[in-house]
Design a protein that fits this description.
Elements (H helix, E strand, L loop, with lengths): L7 E2 L4 E6 L2 E6 L1 H7 L2 E5 L6 E2 L4 E7 L3 E5 L4 E6 L2 H4 L3 H4 L8 E4 L3 H5 L4 H9 L3
Antiparallel strand pairs: 1-2, 2-3, 3-9, 4-6, 5-8, 6-7, 8-9
Length: 128
């Protein structure tokens, strides 16, 4: 399983790539592997305000349906429309073309409170 060191992670298996005051968000390699083949991704509306810990989307696979939770609070700036026609990008490239949303955030402390790659790796090894 890949766990890029430059990203931040949640215990719910989302990743976050900060860039200034915004961040791209998706689900981790571990999460997509557990889900199996992704067949549908429900995206939030651009402009929607989300709160940390709130479900903002859904990833549906051949095995299950899972909520995607906001790792930080903020406003949805962009969604990955490619996932509408190609939800399998979540499986093929979870940290690249399989990103789900971009959120503008105001609280840097929320980003810093997320797990680093080492802590997330330890969480995976613990079987969560």
């Amino acid at each position: 399983m890949k766990t890029p060191s430059e990203l931040r992670y949640t215990e719910d298996h989302e990743w976050l790539r900060p860039d200034g005051r915004s961040a791209r968000i998706g689900i981790t390699d571990f999460a997509q592997d557990q889900l199996g083949d992704v067949v549908f991704v429900e995206l939030p509306e651009v402009g929607r305000e989300v709160k940390k810990g709130e479900a903002f989307g859904v990833v549906e696979s051949v095995k299950s349906v899972s909520d995607v939770f906001a790792p930080i609070s903020g406003k949805v700036l962009a969604v990955n429309h490619d996932l509408v026609d190609k939800p399998e990008l979540v499986n093929q490239d979870p940290y690249g073309q399989g990103w789900i949303v971009e959120i503008e955030f105001g609280d840097e402390a929320e980003v810093q409170s997320l797990l680093d790659a080492q802590a997330y790796g330890a969480l995976q090894e613990g079987g969560h």
